[in-house]
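Lecture notes, continued. The same structure-token format from the folding unit now serves as the input rather than the output. Read the line below as a description of shape only.
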């Protein structure tokens, strides 16, 4: 059976942590950030985890995970 191909757009947007969690860049970092509170700005700098509901679909798109 042929090996599944990796969905390149997904592999560029999501990273798999050492423990197998999917991480993504937090949205809304590009502009209009002057009005955000400092707490929000700091939170946007960190990567966020993907909800468990979507992990199954991502595993199909990125087969090496």
């Amino acid at each position: 059976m042929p090996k599944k191909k990796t969905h390149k757009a997904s592999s560029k947007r999501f990273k798999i942590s050492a423990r197998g969690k999917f991480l993504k860049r937090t949205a809304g970092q590009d502009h209009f950030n002057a009005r955000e509170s400092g707490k929000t700005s700091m939170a946007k700098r960190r990567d966020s985890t993907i909800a468990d509901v979507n992990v199954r679909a991502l595993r199909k798109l990125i087969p090496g995970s």
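Point for the exam: DSSP finds three helices and three strands in the chain.
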